[in-house]
Amino acid sequence: MRTPLCDTLGIDVPIIGFTPSEHVAAAISRAGGLGVLGCVRFNDADELDKVLGWMDANTDGRPYGVDVVMPSKIPTEGSSVDLAELIPDGHKAFVERTLAQLGVPELPDGTDERAGVLGWLHSVARSHVEVALRHPIALIANALGSPPVDVIAQAHERGVPVAALAGKAEHAVRHVDNGVDFVVAQGYEAGGHTGEIASMVLLPEIVDAVGERAPVLAAGGIGSGRQAAAALALGAAGVWTGSIWLATREYLETMPDSEPMQQALVAASSSDTVRTRIYTGKPARLLRTRWTEAWAAPDAPEPLPMPLQNLLVSHAHNRIHAAADPSVVSMPVGQIVGRLNEVRAVADVVADLVGGFEAAVDRVAGIRRA
Amino acid sequence: MRTPLCDTLGIDVPIIGFTPSEHVAAAISRAGGLGVLGCVRFNDADELDKVLGWMDANTDGRPYGVDVVMPSKIPTEGSSVDLAELIPDGHKAFVERTLAQLGVPELPDGTDERAGVLGWLHSVARSHVEVALRHPIALIANALGSPPVDVIAQAHERGVPVAALAGKAEHAVRHVDNGVDFVVAQGYEAGGHTGEIASMVLLPEIVDAVGERAPVLAAGGIGSGRQAAAALALGAAGVWTGSIWLATREYLETMPDSEPMQQALVAASSSDTVRTRIYTGKPARLLRTRWTEAWAAPDAPEPLPMPLQNLLVSHAHNRIHAAADPSVVSMPVGQIVGRLNEVRAVADVVADLVGGFEAAVDRVAGIRRA
């Protein structure tokens, strides 16, 4: 299972795994893929620096990447205190009322709370890039499309290629025009920020639109070797996976209190997701739980624009996480969640993707010959 | 490009083509696939009988099928006059007002108007089945899932297999439990009635859920050989295509006044569809035009349940069709519409699907060996 992308990135199999967990990212890289660490959880660049130091020591010299969240248009900036003044009281009251109705308790006094908003700020994302470029990273990906051209230039100066997510062919072309090296074609079925065009249609459209100018990675709906084979048949140079790494044992090493979330994922079917603006202000696919249902009710307010919506719900996310109730989870995940039926080791997931790919290709090659 | 389905159905390539045009259906069958004629346009069973007689004479002895629209739960029955009384005046006024705003003229006096509702009635769909079974059909497909078990038994008595569309794995299992022979896995990206799970996720889920009990056909997003290869890699026994046949020369032989519709399809991108209840009362993907946009406006009423919504809009559809304005089309089509860039001959479309499939499989087989 080798494509030219393997040589470009120095990996064995064209499987890119996005995850907020350094333990998962390192395990993906050690298994021959490319682990990509999501940086949005790091409000403090020094904390990211330490974690990337850990990655350097735990990837056996295999390549890894980082993922930042940088809107192409710079949104409202400011400290979380300034921004909080822009949030309507009605929205705050709805969140408080909803948490009470869902039985989500207050945090204990003295809890050291993360301010969930900061990673979504442009300045913080820039500090992530600066810190990451001090480490031997193999890729910088931006979840919200093309980063500003000076950020791309900064990465290229250090010899680091840049990937950008795209949900439409015209966006993919714009990214490549801006100097982006890889396009991640993110289909409707994907978790997190996503558009409306499904992978089956989007992927070959983007492959044709960018042509020889950039390899395209398939994101959205990839959780098995059959799906990897389908993605490569559609013209992808590799697969970009995310949701499947949430249900791994290594995830618990980074976030040991994530068992209720994993239980909720394992129980969910492919119908149990919803595409909504309640997580960040932009449409993102989340696990459907009592929390997302409350926001879909007729009395719920419209979500706020990025970055205000994440600021509005970040305290709620902390309370929801602490409540440890699988029925009230707030977690981005794709429709592939229906395939997550147990918590597994990262190396087993990689091995299954490769084995399933080989079996699927052998099957279609038999149909080709028949 | 042969699967066991080819032997079961007596076809050369596992490409099933759904179309309301007998000229297209016959051309698909002559090209080695299975043309499936949509029956919903026939209010009068005798008219269907005549058209199937034409099919018998124009398919060179190659197999063909029919597609009926039969909800598993029998909806409101009655003549169009009875049913019309159930339509709120506010809905009628909205339609009239909207047509005026869109510049869609009244029909000329004396126009012989089709009552568009009848094909959606259960009794009419039953008459379609009875007429079709007098012809040497190779398949009866039901666009709305499992037909009643007595209809399945009636088909089986004549040796005719039954296919049913499914948008969820649990529905597919229920269809097979009812005696359905083939499942059509209809992904979110498909035109017409469709669910929310995209093909990349839905198809392997349905393949695994029904196992050896029934072959699964992939519907939704299939318009090129690469997509056919992806579908077969995901476990499909064949592909079910619909939208791509709307932009064929043969379509104009059946419906010569469809050039404005074809112009609209050729101009559309994959972003130019919308999943809405305005066509039949159930969610269906349509071309996004000024007509669908009017129904998405804040002042638009909620669509009525099936079969009332189609009765409400059937006169509007006739006026829209006669207006011949590509910006006000009412046409079910999938996201693959972005690929329809010219009007082609059916045989060329089939040849491209087969050639593209072969090239895609050769490419992934190379990746497998590398």
Automatic annotation (TrEMBL), chains A, B:
Tell me, what is one Gene Ontology molecular-function annotation carried by this entry?
Answer: nitronate monooxygenase activity
Highest taxon above the source species = Bacteria
UniProt keyword list: Flavoprotein, FMN, Monooxygenase, Oxidoreductase
CDD domains membership: NPD_like
Residue ranges annotated as coiled coil are none
Q: Check the record and name the InterPro entries matching this protein.
A: Aldolase_TIM, NMO
Protein name per the record: Monooxygenase
